[in-house]
Design goal:
The complex is a heterodimer of chains A (335) and B (336). Chain A is globular, with a radius of gyration of 21 Å. Chain A folds into two domains: 245 residues, 3-Layer(aba) Sandwich (Rossmann fold); 87 residues, no CATH class. In chain A, helix 3 crosses helix 4, helix 4 packs across helix 5 and helix 5 runs parallel beside helix 6. Helices cover 29% and strands 24% of the residues of chain A. Chain A is built from ten helices and twelve strands. With 335 residues, chain A is α/β, with parallel strands linked by helices. Chain A has a six-stranded mixed β-sheet with strand order 6-7-8-3-9-10, with helices on both faces. Chain A has a four-stranded antiparallel β-sheet with strand order 2-1-4-5. With 336 residues, chain B is α/β, with parallel strands linked by helices. Chain B has a domain of 104 residues. Helices cover 34% and strands 23% of the residues of chain B. Chain B is built from 13 helices and twelve strands. In chain B, the strands form two sheets. An eight-stranded mixed β-sheet of chain B has the order 6-7-8-3-9-10-12-11, with helices on both faces. Chain B has a four-stranded antiparallel β-sheet with strand order 2-1-4-5, covered by helices on one side. In chain B, strand 9 and strand 10 form a beta hairpin. Chain B is globular, with a radius of gyration of 21 Å. Chain B starts with 13 loop residues before the first strand and ends with a helix. Classes of the chains: A alpha/beta (335), B alpha/beta (336). Chains A and B meet through helix 6, helix 7, helix 8 and helix 9 of A and helix 8, helix 9, helix 10 and helix 11 of B.
């Protein structure tokens, strides 16, 4: 588990805010991702959690090359994806694929399932010889638990869970090492979620895949991830293995987030440490100075407005945490 | 308040008996609700739990009288508010019930609010139409209401349009609107599904507080087993338009009495556990135009026997005075 398959350094994506129609002038920037360092190891699942607008989907797009970063680097197989272009970029992209959130809009309704899953082979003709493609598509359908005879059906003939399996088969087609899953189960019904989660786990073992698993559902992320990164306003505020983040969170935002998740056990009612945050997430176009969480934080002091706390191991935080006053607090168990 | 003849204040607050709703579409008749029954008492929170397509939202629409007709029709059953069968009322009388006695909040506040009027105008409209207030008085009451649902700077925000509010704040506006005329029953249809967890916690806390102040009956429609465990007193689990299990919240989580409830509980990952095996409910919820014969859950059930495929599910089996489940093998599921 030691070898790193993906590494980002100080990854930044700012979307410009412009004014005017003929002469566009830049009046500001939405700092969607603002300095993110992550490492992904072989065969590992890194969960990324955060509320809407924290930049987790933009991070996913940057990693698969759907957006070009403003600055920073993405190292995969000793190559900086950001610097690559043309055929070199195309070749490198094979190695990192994506599963999208909404299985209803992410599959072209006019293409058959066979065409959808086989499309990666048209873009990368050397992946599988022309003769073997039909067979390869059928094998992929079988791998994700769909009937290989259904290659000629259209997406609307499948249920949501089955469509998500089609999306997963498409991501597997080029035998990537890394799959970025952006909210892969949040559009599915509760009874279907478990099917897709179990499928992702089985595929990981079978093919030695590394996942970046982005979701807002903290329970699902805990179930599937080895390590978890918590994002707030474009930055990672805390990162660590499953026990560190869930059992011993040290950043106030992680603590608030965890304490807000209702647990399916009525006996815990009124017996948990409850932190209710005031207000909403500030706009990423104009983030607060210093620590970005300070406007909603109950621990905030003057130093929080002046000094931006780096993400590092601290005296009272055995894992990296971006808080001047990081301290372990258990918020998910009975108190 | 408008006078409503036939209301008996000693009768149960809200009682739904054997409700059937169907949608007549060009592809056939979709049986959305097939005999839903439950009871709601003042101050109580009843959760209706189920997946999409189980008929939980349609049940709420039938209670409110806001079904799209056509294609939706209530074909059987009764909805009694304080003894008065709402389904037999004229549209004029139903308007007196809506918002005054029974109000509803919806999942998506952005599409439930009118984008071209200020929230103050939309709130004041309730007072003008139902209470005959003047515009100025209505506007003043609107400000007070926004303050009650804890919108910061309420008086100033009366003149804002829905798009100027964040998701959580819009949901607060919806709650204010539902509570404007002091209803006795509030139906909340997935009120926090579109919101982030920290905002969800704020909204659920607000709802619980307002419910307690007013001793309202609350029907919470959701698919989230966590939210239910946090706030509900009783739970009705729906599957394919039927209530398959009804129980006090503590019983159902520790010892589910229907195979569907049990399977649901075993299929969700938990925040406070690691390494659990997620058991899978095989197959899909049935299409409502083609509900399997026998027990509707039989193709997905782990306890299935021949009787489940042939006979309709048995009448609610009384597990304890306040608990029922509709399964031939209740005792086996309970593990007794």
């Amino acid at each position: 588990m030691s070898d790193v398959v993906l590494e980002t350094k100080n990854l930044v994506k700012h979307f410009p805010i412009t004014q005017g129609i003929v002469f566009k002038t830049k009046v500001g920037a939405v700092r969607a991702v603002d300095g993110v360092d992550i490492e992904l190891h072989r065969g590992e699942t890194l969960g990324v959690v955060g509320e809407s607008g924290c930049g987790k989907s933009t991070l996913a797009k940057l990693l698969v090359g759907l957006e070009k970063p403003t600055s920073g680097s993405i190292m995969v197989r000793n190559e900086n994806m950001v610097r690559l272009s043309g055929s070199a970029l195309r070749r490198a992209r094979r190695n990192i694929q994506m599963v999208l959130q909404d299985p209803y809009t992410s599959l072209n309704p006019r293409m058959t399932v066979g065409d959808i899953i086989g499309e990666p082979f048209q873009i990368h003709p050397d992946a599988v010889p022309r003769k073997g493609r039909e067979r390869a598509v059928q094998d992929l359908l079988d791998t994700v638990g769909l009937n290989p005879d259904h290659v000629n059906r259209y997406p609307h003939q499948f249920s949501g869970g089955q469509r998500q399996r089609i999306g997963i088969a498409r991501a597997l087609a080029l035998k990537p090492e890394i799959i970025v899953c952006d909210e892969p189960v949040s559009a599915l019904d509760v009874s279907i979620q478990a099917q897709v989660i179990n499928l992702l786990e089985r595929l990981q073992k079978e093919f030695g895949l590394s996942y970046i698993f982005i979701a807002h559902d903290l329970s699902v992320v805990r179930h599937i991830s080895n390590r978890v990164a918590v994002m707030y306003l474009g930055r990672i505020v805390e990162i660590g293995d499953d026990l560190a983040i869930y059992e011993q969170p040290t950043h106030p935002y992680t603590q608030a987030l965890l304490s807000a998740v209702p647990l399916p056990d009525p006996r815990l009612r009124g017996h948990r440490d409850q932190i209710v945050l005031e207000g909403d997430v500030p706009s990423p176009a104009n983030p607060p100075s210093g620590c970005r969480f300070r406007t909603r934080c109950w621990k905030a002091q003057e130093v929080c407005a002046e000094k931006d706390p780096p993400l590092e191991v601290r005296e009272r935080s055995p894992h990296p945490s971006a808080c001047h006053f990081a301290e372990i607090r258990d918020v998910i168990h009975r108190t | 308040m408008d006078v409503l003849p036939g209301v008996d204040h000693n009768a149960p607050l809200l009682e739904v008996n054997d409700l059937h709703v169907e949608f007549r579409t060009q592809y056939g008749v979709a049986k959305a609700v097939n005999g839903a029954s439950f009871l709601l008492n003042p101050g109580e929170t009843l959760a209706i739990l189920g997946e999409s397509g189980c008929g939980k939202s349609v049940t709420a629409q039938a209670i409110m009288g806001i079904l799209d007709t056509p294609p939706g029709y209530v074909t059987q059953g009764e909805v009694r508010y304080r003894g008065l069968d709402l389904l037999k009322l004229s549209e004029n009388d139903r308007r007196k019930v809506r918002a005054n006695r029974i109000a509803m909040i919806f999942q998506d506040a952005l599409s439930a609010l009118n984008p071209v009027y200020t929230v103050g105008f939309q709130l004041a409209e309730l007072f003008r139409k139902h209470r005959g207030m003047s515009r100025a008085d209505g506007r003043k009451r609107a400000g007070e209401l926004l303050d009650q649902v804890k919108i910061p700077g309420a008086q100033a925000r009366v003149n804002d349009y829905p798009h100027q509010f964040s998701g959580g704040m819009r949901q607060r506006v919806m709650i204010a609107m539902a509570l404007a005329l002091d209803p006795e029953v509030l139906i909340a249809d997935e009120p926090t599904t579109a919101l982030d967890v920290t905002v969800q916690a704020q909204i659920m806390g607000l709802l619980a507080e307002l419910q307690q102040q007013r001793n309202m009956g609350l029907i919470l429609i959701t698919h989230d087993m966590g939210v239910v465990a946090d706030v509900a007193d009783r739970i009705s689990v729906m599957y394919a338009g039927k209530v398959v299990e009804e129980a006090p919240v503590y019983d159902i989580y520790s010892q589910p009495g229907h195979p569907y409830t049990k399977a649901l509980l075993e299929s969700i990952p938990r925040l406070d556990m690691k390494g659990q095996q997620l058991s899978v409910i095989r197959g899909l919820p049935p299409a409502l135009t083609n509900i399997p014969s026998g027990c509707p859950f039989n193709p997905r059930c782990g306890y299935v026997r021949d009787v489940c495929r042939q006979d309709p599910p048995p009448p609610p089996y009384q597990i304890s005075p306040h608990r029922t489940a509709r399964c031939h093998f209740v005792r086996e599921v309970l593990g007794v």
